[in-house]
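Target protein
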Amino acid sequence: MIIVTWTGKAFSVNKWHAIRYVKNKPRIVPTREYETFIDSLAWAIKADIPEWAEPPWEALDLTMRCEVGPTMDDHNLLKPVCDAIQRSGLLADDRNIQHRHLLPARRHKRGQPDTIHLEMEEVV
């Protein structure tokens, strides 16, 4: 099992995309803020992968608990977390997350940093 705790400003999936025009055609692209959040979380995951883990895993089970502000929908963090797991190299494709357990979020006051706690176990 790999346990990762990340602290910072969590980014909801509701704000993940923007519309950019390429050759006068609209394209939906990820925002810089979303990419920065994913990179930050992916580096935290990558830093905590022990040598015995031997990524990429075939599949994993994910348990997530977060501490977020009073207005954030904690379930909107699930997609960015799955994207970060894939970007970290632990999984080749985030569709291979077999079970996603989202524990009830703890709430903090505005202005405090958000915390995401992940427990990832390889499915053999």
Strands lie at 2-8, 17-22, 25-30, 60-68, 97-102, 106-107, 114-122. The radius of gyration is 15 Å.
